[in-house]
Write a structure and sequence with these properties.
single chain; alpha/beta; six-stranded mixed β-sheet
Length: 330
């Protein structure tokens, strides 16, 4: 329990421990998750420390959600302390999240590592795979406004429907066009001239050579890779990688000043290097703290459609059926 004078009461409800079986063998998967949650919490602590320098303070209460019986969990959820919370970071369990929202419908639930279909007071920092193309597309439109943007999708009906739905607002645009890719052929042909951005959706990176040939003679033209390519990078002979921009999430760039500053602070505080979960905890708490400082407890209603650049991820919260959804991507 971290105490200070404040108008805000923040809870952290995450699985910080692992179980053992009758023979004393630890659940390895749960152990890894508990390590990740401890790193995540370390990031939260450092964000609160830095936020205090801006005048932010909060009463922070922490519970371990793992290994509790149903009765014990209900006692926590129904306690006066829990019910008085303004914001709850966690849990990462759908059923538990729904129970909390039913017991305390006004609490703002922050889901850090899993997409929760909960209620309109949920902030989903975790990005669903099906939303990642939307994230890439919004980033491209915002960053390459003077280019001809060509969406190149595979020839699977579901993928075409999803992309076409996203492009409804651009159906009359001369700068955005939709194309399909099948057996090495793009239909309709991409526009002539230079300043072309080809945004790839659902196409294997084994096709990189075929795709880069479409723009290697065009000036100032690039391919925005499918969001899966970076994590499973494939080096392909004869491909000019300088023509490809790889969008990603959870990217730690060691030369970035804010990343270095956080890493050094984490090392000084905990005598260990942060994992990506430490960076995530820091970015999310830093974002929430600044939102509270700027707009107060009703910040979900007033956040601008802007993008926040954190140490590891970009955060761009947009309204959805279940509160706010992060579509930020780097």
């Amino acid at each position: 329990e971290i105490k200070s004078n404040s108008n805000y009461r923040i809870g952290v409800f995450l699985p910080f421990s692992a179980s053992t079986d009758a023979e004393g063998n630890i659940d390895k998967q749960q152990q890894l998750l508990s390590y990740a949650m401890m790193d995540f919490y370390g990031g939260i602590q450092l964000a609160l420390e830095n936020l205090s320098k801006l005048g932010f303070s909060a009463d922070v209460y922490t519970w371990n959600s793992h290994g509790k019986s149903t009765t014990e969990l209900n006692q926590i959820i129904e306690s006066n302390t829990f019910k008085s919370l303004d914001i709850l970071i966690g849990p990462i369990d759908d059923k538990m999240a729904i129970e909390i929202s039913e017991s305390n419908p006004t609490i703002i639930q922050v889901s850090p590592l899993k997409y929760l279909k909960n209620n309109s007071n949920t902030i989903n920092f975790f990005q669903k795979k099906e939303n990642r193309f939307e994230s890439v597309f919004e980033g491209v439109v915002n960053r390459f406004s003077n280019y001809k943007i060509c969406i190149i999708s595979n020839n699977i009906a579901k993928a075409q429907i999803n992309v076409k739905n996203l492009l409804q607002d651009y159906k009359d645009s001369k700068s955005v066009s939709y194309h399909t890719y099948k057996n090495g052929s793009i239909k309709p042909n991409i526009p002539s001239g230079d300043d072309i951005i080809m945004v790839i959706d659902g196409i294997s990176q084994t096709q990189k050579l075929s795709l880069t040939k479409r723009i290697n003679r065009k000036t100032n033209s690039y391919i925005i890779a499918d969001h899966t390519w970076f994590d499973n990078f494939l080096s392909t002979e004869e491909v000019d990688e300088s023509l490809i921009i790889y969008p990603t999430i959870n990217y730690i760039f060691g030369l970035d000043s804010s990343t270095q500053e956080f890493s050094n602070q984490y090392l000084d505080s905990f005598h260990a290097e942060p994992s990506r979960f430490g960076y995530q905890g820091y970015d999310q708490m830093w974002f929430i703290g600044n939102a509270l400082l700027s707009f107060g407890i009703d910040f979900m209603e007033f956040l601008p459609e802007a993008e926040f650049s954190g140490t590891i991820n970009n955060i761009a919260l947009r309204k959805s059926k279940y509160g706010l959804l992060n579509i930020g991507m780097r």
